[in-house]
Amino acid sequence: MHLKIFGAAGEVTGSCYLIECGSSRVLVDCGMFQGRDDAKNRDPFPFSAASVDAVLLTHAHMDHSGRIPLLVKEGFKGKVFATLPTLELVKVLWYDSANLMREEAEWKTKKNSRKGLGPVEPLYGADHVDRAIPRLEAVNYDEKIEAAPGVSVRFRDAGHILGSAVLEVWLAEEGKEVKIVFSGDLGPQDTVMERNPAIISSADYVVIESTYGDRLHRSNAESREEFREVISAALRDKGKVFIPSFVVDRAQRVLYELTLLREDGIMGENIPVFFDSPMGVKATEIYKKHMNLLSSEIQQFINLGKDPFSP
């Protein structure tokens, strides 16, 4: 048995772990490098994509899922296991990523042509996303499956974004069994959008994210109060508020907070709200489809017959 780490160690993006157990080779995540490390995305995989039997995907964010179409482009023919909401979200994110990379490659190619340099190819295209989608296979939370011979996995709720999972992985080789837990990205115990993360009671080894391991975040009540103060001040001054946001989870949280402002009479019905993101609208529809996986606070709001994402 071997565990090899090819990203998200000593850095925050590019999550990718290779498990070797007997004749099986399984990846946990295959994410994009982002920010100052994005040039690494063009480095060859340090393993043969065709030799990988399966991918276990913790959640949809691109730093965990974004290079799976590239893996398929390079010859991967196995299954990608994840929760159903994760699989629905990655389809939206992958096609958007392919379009952005195509536009960027076209721009760089034009720039290069003026310098007498060659064309720039995108990392992968929409056709590779087309080929990756049939590889996706949904797994229920708390269901134990065999991903490859000698490699079993159970997906547990991570409370990070819709569909996110902590992975309990059991490796069996030559009569010996070892359990590794991969945290993926974890949500807080006191959540607004998602359910609280599952409690894992045992493991032989734990691979855990620690991005904010040395930081104390403010409480949900403090964050909500700050948001309300900013909106209220803008309304008093007859101003406009621009809120840049990630389209998955953060945008839905903003929509919910704006809905509460309407409910509490802080923001009148005459104040228009524009959600300028076709991709964000698609992600919100996926959230609406899986309301049963959201927090008790959201569930209570829904039980009153209200839509949490339509201010």
Uncertain runs = none
State Rg: 21 Å
Apparent shape: globular
Along the chain, the helix and strand elements come as: EEEEHHEHHEEEEEEHHHH
Mind explaining what this structure looks like?
- The chain is an alpha/beta fold and 311 residues long.
- Helix content is 32%, strand content 19%.
- It has helices at residues 62-65, 68-73, 84-113, 126-132, 220-236, 250-263, 278-289, 296-303; strands at residues 2-5, 16-21, 24-30, 54-56, 79-82, 136-138, 144-148, 151-157, 165-173, 176-182, 205-207.
- Helix 3 packs antiparallel against helix 7.
- The model has no long low-confidence stretch (mean pLDDT 95).
Concise structural overview:
32% of the residues lie in helices and 19% in strands.
Record the SSE blueprint.
Elements: E1 2-5, E2 16-21, E3 24-30, E4 54-56, H1 62-65, H2 68-73, E5 79-82, H3 84-113, H4 126-132, E6 136-138, E7 144-148, E8 151-157, E9 165-173, E10 176-182, E11 205-207, H5 220-236, H6 250-263, H7 278-289, H8 296-303
Helix pairs in contact: 3-7
